Amino acid sequence: MVDTGPVTVAEGRRAADHLRQAFGDSVKVAESCAQATVEVPPELLVPAAEELRRHPDCLYEMPVTMTCVDWPEREDRFEVVYILRSLVHNDLCRLVVRVADGQELPTLSILYPGLGWHERECYDLFGLRFAGHADLTRILLPDDWEGHPLRKDYVSFGEPVAFTHNLEWALSPQDRPEWMPGAVRGSVERP
Amino acid sequence: MATLPPIRGSGTPVDEIPVQEGIPRLHPGGQGEFLDKIDQGEELLELNMGPQHPSTHGVLRLVLSLDGERVVECRPDIGYLHTGFEKSFESHTYQQCIPLTDRMDYLAPPINNFGFALTAEKLLGIEVPVRAQYIRVIVAELSRIASHLIWLGTHAMDLGATSMFMYCWRERDRILDIMEWISGVRMMTSFIRVGGLMADVPSEFVPMVKAFIADFPKRVDEYEALLTANPIWRQRTIGLGAIDAASALGYGCSGATLRGSGVPYDVRKAHPYSGYDRFQFDVPVGVNGDVYDRYLVRVREMREACRIVEQAVEGLPGGPVNTSDRKVAAPPRAEIDNSMESLIHHFKLYTEGFRPPAGSCYSAVESARGELGFLMVSDGGNRPYRCKVRGPSFSNLSALSQMVRGELVADVVAVVGSIDIILGDVDR
After folding, report:
1. ipTM confidence
2. b vs e for B284-319, b when ≥16 Cβ sit within 10 Å of the residue's Cβ?
3. Would you identify the CATH topology of the domain A13-149?
4. What is the pTM of this model?
5. Residues B26, B28, B32, B33: what is their CA dihedral angle, to the nearest 10 degrees?
6. Residue A62: its chain B contacts at CB < 8 A?
């Protein structure tokens, strides 16, 4: 899907063409639903964002939102998406960076103050870290929350229901009845 | 009735609103001067405002650092209403997500449905029939009016104008009656679905809407007679909580919060969806970006919404309200009796849902609070792989600290009211 061919769609084309001109082949462009998504390597994130924010051909001044998409089976599992809007050129740009688990990204909250809270949300719900962020704390969840719920490997709700055929999967050794393989002795009395 | 300030048209800011003679301005715009004075090693008072505070419009906690009566710093603490909708989306089929969207911005639920449905339709590559587009616009604009009415009532009540609340509630109830008539539910309607609407509107719908819009502009005149030229109202709001256009844009503000600062950005004009380009309407903008300008913008928006509804009701075409794509919208009941294929479609849709092709898509609608966007990622399955909701209140609230810096602590409620946050939309 991601390629370096000519950009055919209208929305986001301005950003794609400009970044390609500025940074060459390290910029990849994907198209989906008539929108272009520009992918840059993490080290180019800040220069690319500065270019998009300040260059008169771009002027993507409004940070609409940023978020992350988790693809656990990929090597760089987090796809961080920045959505920026240019009111002058009436265009929308999607800037994408891929990072691995534990890899830090530079913050864009200095360039776009509005992204400060969004980066906190990404930290809160995905566990992404942003170097240089002034106050990288949880924003939606309580401070003592464990885990990052929007990761795909975070069980969304409920607890596994134990049936006779899946007891070993559903119950930890402490919770297993005595007659079950792997049970801790005297843990649970047989009903 | 007192003379009203002129209506501010599309993107052309008019002259500054004159301050009446003899009324001192409480907010002479001396924030910078005040902020220079502090920072002399004086101890600041930390004050907790909320989460259980009637003027925070939900559960918002503000940690204020005060120097006397002045706010030095304001740190909003959010998340008390976090419901994890984005995680829930991932385990529901697209159509099942619609009732979840209702509960985000719970003062204008149809607009949430609208945004979600439009994004899913973009992923699917389908268009809904023109009649459905018109009805969607009518329902969305009516709920925009209903939402603004609640904002106006509570905002005025926060500042002591208690009677406004009663009047606004009266008009809002008429809109809820219309919603109940078309969907059976007063608030969480889930009326707009992916592929069209829940059902066609009953025959009483058009007369009800017409009666409402014939009456409503007069009511707005009454509200304005109570507030717009009211010296107390103007004293409390003019010059308060001002934010300049560049800062508002940098914070990602949208809706009346951005337009109050003079930026004529409205998704309905910039990226018309669902046939908004068919209708004539203006985008009111303010000049100073203060509480009073945001008030004026929203009141004018109610009039403009009324204009849109009027045009949409006049031109409401006939025809179906659901897409003819049987892979997305269920076939009519009569068709199931005659066609095996329809029966299969019906069964598949209600057990499994539909599967948009793999891809991702961002699209936005103008909600009552600003740009409500959905970033939807599909992996080809019957549930969204990831659906990010860009709640306009979230970005608008992030600009609050800048707005209240240097203001009086009693005015914080006025500023919070003026950005019209809905905590369900902030926390999602």
Report:
1. 0.84
2. bbbbbbbbbbbbbbbbbbbbbbbbbbbbbbeebeee
3. Beta Polymerase; domain 2 (3.30.460)
4. 0.85
5. -90
6. 249-250, 252, 254, 265
